[in-house]
């Protein structure tokens, strides 16, 4: 990526700083900080992006600078600097993000997005003395700026980033637009991102894609077009309900749609804060992970209501059949039993097949029923409709599951519910980082259950003195392949039911008290 016009957060002011490159930009003269002849910080261009801007940065109102009012006025006068330029923030170790504002046009054939602008801007703030000049169809075109970006949120992970398609972001003089006609004109911004990489794993689909998409676009209030690199029809079908809550417009397949799409603005890349969560202090309106969950709620309820209506219709048909065959007294007893069952706290078990399965799951379920839970066992796979999983977990009081990608579905639970994560040997750090801490931020009552060596199938494979059982962290330090082959792919769990029962009783008591409190509040 070119060195000029990289945007970085400037902690001093809570703003975005655009560092100038010699001969490309005229320094901002700030007499308060030594004028334009001092060090690089005093010479830096300052870029303010207000809350309404699609870039997603906003002024820090908690700034205690004594000259706050004056600084705001000075900075706001420089807003026009950004217009018709490519501004890239490469400060995050997780992702790069670029913003193009002005006459933006796509070119899927060359994997490029072009921005057409005049060579100089108002008052001569931009001074491009060294630009690439080329001749196209007899016309001279001047390339003002050229950036390269891979719009995927695992920037630090070289192996997967090597598989991501790269985009060329090119700023040219406005006369070059004559040779690049618009086929489709849009009057709202575009957000470009990739659904390549680890897409196919539900954790990565939410953590690397859906949640960052919300973070990046929510402030646009659905007035945005999503342009996808490495487009997958199945991904669109799977997440269509959510996408419809983030955008009012059809998604564009960047590579498959050869037409030139023209936008007034483009955001290339997605902003990501942390694992399965967001930092409210970085969001306009202080949006939080609970707000994201509310979007999921609105996305899935239309489909859930349809499922409920279908089930109610089927239930009425079954009841009519029973009435024609059984005495009415038996029907009344069955209805009373169903009413009692509904009043019990609901526990959902996310069951695994293959590795990290609970081999005595059936006994655990029976024990939970004796404690007082009504149980629903869910076995999600790649084809399971997300609305059905959402319905199961949204109506649950407790979730039990073994560490793995399926634990991402804790996002479907209501704040205040209980999440019990069974943690196999060697997965403590990942279980806490990817699911434990994020679930607490959502407002769940998180209960971890790190298994003992005797509860692992590895206990039958290794000597009790082996580091695999005695010191899993030393094994993990050898590298990811050791962790994956031994602890993720090569391990099942047989719960110590007496030990695990304590977690279930704790979850049951919490659920009873919570439901009683909610009932009293509704009176």
Automatic annotation (TrEMBL):
Organism taxonomic ancestry = Eukaryota, Viridiplantae, Streptophyta, Embryophyta, Tracheophyta
Q: What's this protein's name?
A: Glycosyltransferase 61 catalytic domain-containing protein
Q: Name one GO molecular function term.
A: pentosyltransferase activity
Q: Which organism is it from?
A: Acer yangbiense
Is the keyword tRNA processing in the record?
no
Q: What is its main location?
A: Golgi
**Domain Glycosyltransferase 61 catalytic, chain residue ranges per copy:** 291-420
Topology of the protein relative to the lipid bilayer? Single-pass type II membrane protein
Q: Where in the cell is it found?
A: Golgi apparatus membrane
Please give one Pfam family short name.
Glyco_transf_61
